Structure formats: C-alpha cells, structure tokens
Amino acid sequence: MPTGTSIPQRTVLGVRAASSDRFASQEFSLVLLTGPQSGQTYPIGQSLRIGKAPDNDVVIDHPTVSRNHLTVRRQGDVFLVQDQGSTNGTFIDGAQIKEGFLRAGALLEVGDVQLRFQPMIKSLDVSPTAQDRLGDLVGKSLPMRQIFALIQRIAPTDSTLLLIGETGVGKGAAARTIHKLSPRATGPFVIFDCASVSENLIESELFGHEKGAFTGAIAQRVGCLERADGGTLFLDEIDDLPLDLQPKLLRALEDREFRRLGQSGGTHKFDTRVIAASKKDLWGETQAGRFREDLYFRLSVFTLTLPTLRDRKEDLPLLVDAMAGGNVWNRLSDKQRDMFNAHTWPGNVRELRNAVERLKHVADIPELASENFLREYAGPDRQEGETLPVNYAGPFKDVKDDLVRAFEREYLTRLLAKTRGNIAKGARDAGLDRKHLYSLLHKYGLVQSSEE
Questions:
Q1: Among 250, 267, 298, 420, which residue's Cβ finds the most Cβ atoms within 10 Å?
Q2: 85 φ, ψ to 5°?
Q3: What is the pLDDT at residue 373?
Q4: Which helix (H) or strand (E) segment is 161 a member of?
Q5: What pLDDT score was predicted for residue 137?
Q6: Are 217 and 210 in contact (CB under 8 A)?
C-alpha cells in the first residue's frame, strides 16, 4: 500500500489470494534460493541494499558477494536493480547488468548467490466509507462502500489496477471515477475494448502503425497508448487479448515505450496509468494457460472485484433515482418494485439503465403497465419455437423490415440471457464476428459503451 494508508492486511501464503477475496494488493519480496538460509524471504519496500557489509538491508556472507553489491529501488510499479560496482557482477535471468528492471519470477544472481523476485497477492480488509456515492458510482451496500474507500486511497497513486466483474457491473464507471480522482484528471481517458476489435487489428489499435505498414494502412495511425499519454488507458475485456500480443503489451508497460507497427527505428515513450478490466477470474485464466502470468502480475498491483447487481439489491432505489434524475423509486407501484427486486439482472447495472430509460419516457409512472417494462430482460412471453407476431396489413417491405427487426431483437435478447451478458461467448454461439455482434447490440440498445 502507498505510504500513509491504514488498510489492515492479512498475508496470503503463495502467490495468489483466494478467488473469493474482493480486494487485494501485491507485496514484493526476494526469496533466497541458495545457501544454508535458502527459503529466507526479504520484503522490498522503497529500497533494499544487498551486500556482505553488516549495514546492508540484506546481509549475505558469501565470498562472491561484494561488501555493497547492489540496490533495488522501487519506482512506482517497477523495481530497478543497480549494481554498486561489485567484483563478480549482478545478473538478471542470466544477463549481466549495471541497471535493469525486475519482472515477476525473475532470477537475480548476486555473485554466485541466487534470489527469486516473487510477487505475492495480499487480500485487503477494507473499512467502508459512510458515503453512498463516489464519482460515477452509486451504492449504499457494504461492498460498494468498501470499494469507495479503496478507490479513494488508490486513485492518487499511479499504480496499475485490475477490475474484475461480470459484464455490466460498472467496471467502466469505476475506471472513470479513479481517473477523475487522480492527478491525471486533466489528461485523456482512453478506452480500448479488447473484445470489440478484430484480432488482426488489435496491435495497430494499441500501438499505432506507420503508413504502408500493412495492406490498407494508407496513413499513419496513433494508437491508444500514445493517445492516453499523460492520462489513463482503460483496457476493457483484457481476458480477450490474444496470447501472442500479451508479451508485447507487457514489454511496453515495463519499459514505458513502444514501437508503432512498421516503424523502422526508434521508440515512443509514454506516461500512462493503466487500468485493466476482466469479466473472468484472471488468475484462473493464467492457471489454464489462457493468460500470461507475468502480465497478470504486472496488471494486478491492486485488484478490485465489483459485485453483481443481484448481490446488492439494496442499492436498487439509489441506482434507479440516480439514473432517472429524480425521485422515481417511490413513485413506482408495489408490483413494479417487487419486479425490480425479484429480477436476477443478468445484465447488471447496464441492464438496469436500459429499464430505467424506458421508465423515464412514461409520463405517469404509477399508471405504467407493469407487465411490460422488464419483458425483454425477464424473458419473452412467447415460448421456445413460438412464432413472432406479423402484421400482414402493411406494405411488403415495411412488414418484412418490422419482422426482421423483431427477430433480431428477440434473438439477441435470448442470446444475452443465455450467455449472461458474455459478448465473446455470444459471438461464438451465434457464429458472428464480435464486432458485428456489438454493432447489432448497440442498434437495439441492448449494450452501451464501456464508459458505463
């Protein structure tokens, strides 16, 4: 945690806390691998001095270790190793260095003594705030007020952050809130949705490209990393980032520089805070081989898991009123409130927003036909296999267009319900390109931008 914070912590042995832990941060240590004290762990704060002299933070009495061998310094989310003119040298993963950065799992050799750079995840016990709003976030439930407290501590730092939660829980709103409360608030807030871009274009969207870099590259393009310089880059659906691109993103985040596609020489420096979001347990994805462990540790300096709407239904009145811009919840009938409370909200806050949008267009809410306003989410009245209604009285083209629109909305609504809002799975099940599926969902107002 940054200096001055007062969140009590409990250390979880190993590298990862239990997946049920909603809030977590990383602790970094060097683990001694050789010699009679092998297994000894040395936590790294802002700096750590290693050598044979007794005034070092880590004293290693070995003939190949110099009196003042090296220093490890923390610089934000990265750790810089500086050799102090040692006799036998300092090595990171077999390469001798004068200065070099440590990555998760890196082997640090001090003369003939070996240490492992080991990040560990610590679950956080967070005391909730009393407030029920923070930036774009609304909620009086315990998990939301805990999230408010943690965001207030994290936002002023430049630490990388990982947001976990189902589709529609408000990961985009949380990222925007963190940006607004940070020293980077006057800088750009750039969103990149890894699931909505074709795989062959993701690298260009992230890093940019030069004219002629590939077929169709008729002009230079500035990528998301460059556009977010001085601000915040929100990488949504990071679990959909292809494996072959993950090392390139990791290298860019570690070195704070990148090369555009087709760039012949030189690199571009950038100063960007990165917030990543995933609808999946990203640690589970690393264990299944679908996500790189080193990139996971680079992104999860802090981890926040956002609760589903069904797990915080006490927030419904606040959310409805905030979305409608007035006292709407108390104007609903008992039956309407019961419908809201009984609904499972598979689309979470995003789905609620669409329902409230319909409510806003009803002039007299107490007179609303309550059987209708949640229909597309609670489930269609028609049974599987039943035909859609057709009006045969109109012109052929108009009737056909109406029927196609009704079918598309019906199909997409059922698809979202079946996949619980998982767009990537929905695209696979429907046999559609993800980008095309997104455009259809936007067309019918079934999904909104990542800013929510």
A1: 298
A2: 75, 35
A3: 57
A4: strand 161-164
A5: 96
A6: yes
- How far CA 346 is from CA of 32, 42, 146, in Å, comes to 48, 45, 23
Q: What is the reported pLDDT for 376? A: 46
CB 25 within 8 A of CB 302: yes
- Give which of 316, 304, 306 is closest to 343, Cα–Cα: 316
151 vs 133: CA distance, rounded Å: 12
Nearest-10 crossing angle of helices 423-430, 396-419: 120
Rg (CA), the chain: 26
Joined tokens for residue 205 = 């969207």
Under a CB-based contact definition with an 8 Å cutoff, are residues 50 and 27 in contact?
no
Number of Cβ within a 10 Å radius of residue 363 = 6
pLDDT of residue 271: 92
Rounded to whole angstroms, what are the CA distances from 377 to 267, 337, 428? Answer: 49, 15, 21
Contact (CB, 8 A) for 237 and 163: no
Count Cβ atoms within 10 A of the Cβ of residue 63 and give its class: 0-12 exposed, 13-18 middle, 19 or more buried. Answer: exposed
Q: Provide CB contacts within 8 A for 18, sequence distance 6+.
A: 12, 123
- pLDDT computed for residue 292 by the predictor: 92
Smallest CA-to-CA distance from 160 within 282, 261, 268, 244 is with 282
pLDDT value at residue 225: 92
Per DSSP bridges, beta strands 232-236 and 189-193 are parallel
275-291 pLDDT, tens digit per residue, is: 999 988 888 888 888 89
Q: Do the Cβ atoms of 137 and 170 come closer than 8 Å?
A: yes
Task: Please choose, from the candidates 396, 309, 390, the residue with its C-alpha nearest in 3D space to the C-alpha of residue 354.
Answer: 309
**Residue 398, pLDDT score:** 66
Give the distance between the most distant pair of CA atoms in the chain: 95
Q: How far is Cα 298 from Cα 31, in angstroms, rounded to an integer?
A: 19
Kindly give the parts of the chain with pLDDT less than 50.
1-20, 363, 365-371, 375-385, 449-452
Tokens matching residue 343: 């609904």
